[in-house]
Model the fold of this input.
Amino acid sequence: MRHFRLVLLSILLIAALLLALVQWNLLPSLFYSGGGPGKTVPIPPEGARPDAASGPDDFTESSGSLKSLAREITAAAPDDYGKLCAIYDWVTANIAYDVEKAKKMEDYGYGAEYLLKYRQGVCHDYAELTRALLKAVGIKATYERGEVHPAPGKTEHHAWNRVRIGESWYGLDTTWGSGFVDQEKGRFIQRPSRLYLTTVEELARLHSDPAYKESREIEWRRAQSAAAKAVYLPEYESGLLELFNKTRNKRGLASLQQEPGLSGAVRRSAVAGAAKACLDEEFTLDQLNGEIEQNASQLRLAKAGLYAFTLWDYPFPAVEEIYGLIAEQQDLFLEKGDYEGLAVGVVRKGDLLVVVLAGLSYH
Done:
């Protein structure tokens, strides 16, 4: 009887131990270590760390605010890829790169919670927050870090993410996708781009090949600008006329008078030029010249001098800088005394600014 009680007690102790292991998720690891026959175990790309704790600040997903934010961002997404895009777009549009922190990292905090609080940080913070938001909606994401080459002869330590959806892996860099640093002015320019949400292989090439990165950024800029609506900029038109006249007055020349009869023609010419430039096609002022010739007698025109100026930039500089760039390019005909009138057309199409000038002499 005593022996029976000892056996029963032993069985109960073993059962209690097994139950505890199951509850602690330890039992499977004791008996199973990999995929067996007929079971496919996907192998992630080299360097990927699909499990947790791979960055400097492994965000604890108990944060209610982050989970709520992730659910809010992805509320309208139809599937996991839509959630990935929504989170990428939110981070790149709402988080700024901290130029000052990059100079002296030890003076600042770091990680997902830090970035969510201050809304500005460096690449490691971007990667941590992106990963945490994705994990909060059930998407497997990794934190990656290594050396990248953003420009010829330049190497930086950087951080980014990889994401697994189904059997596919994606590479995303929300730091580079959020904008760029204006090196001359030492400030960050928010300029969200989907260019850095792509395949793992494409992102690796963007990180390692500066010439390829530049060519893809140009392609992206042209495509975005081609799809954008052309917008007239009357404040630039009047501003340029005023600046031309200031220069003429300093030289003892009479002010140029705005010619309303050709304002539509020069604007249409600027729109046509913008469309051509977005496609990297040659643009001429032949059509505008033809329109001016047709209206010459009605407007009492003796001659016209035509000029076109294009600028790719974001954000656009002030009108004074545009005037300076135009004046630098040539001995501008508008600074000569035989012109009396001016028609100006300024159009913005995405990141492209086009200026068309028609200097006019009258009978």
Remarks:
- The longest strand covers residues 140-151.
- The radius of gyration is 31 Å.
- The chain has two domains: 64-226, 231-362.
- The CA atoms of residues 248 and 335 lie 6 Å apart.
